[in-house]
Structure of GPI-anchored protein LLG1-like domain-containing protein:
Amino acid sequence: MASNNRWFYVILFALLTGLASSTFVPGDVFQSHGYTARALLQAKTACTVDFEHQNYTIITSQCKGPNFQAGPCCTALKEFACPYSVEISDDKSDCASTMFSYINAMGNYPPALFSSLCVEGKQGLDCGNFTSTKTSVNNGATPMPMMLTASFFMLLFHLF
């Protein structure tokens, strides 16, 4: 009697499993649905700025640990990065991740230090009121308000 109940439950399970599965595949599942706005795994273009040969003493002389202070570190980051705000904000290039890789390597900074210290709002760091002694490479264009937001998020996604 017990073996009959067992077979009954096995057959009932098989029938219910068969009814729960889909009996057809939509026709458009194998067709391309066009371009989507996400570019998570797409290759990025090489950065036009040579961050390898930049002078990082602006940052390394002002932003010192082990107790990193937001004021000096963020001011130094702005002084270094604001002239390149257009290039850093370009989502299609690897400028932001390249720049932060060299900053972290030259200063032996912990990962995501600047993204946790230097937060001015949703748009990232504001380079609009920042004056620099360097000549900007953006040819007089107004820096975008989101100039470093993309770089911080790209750094976070790159590291984690």
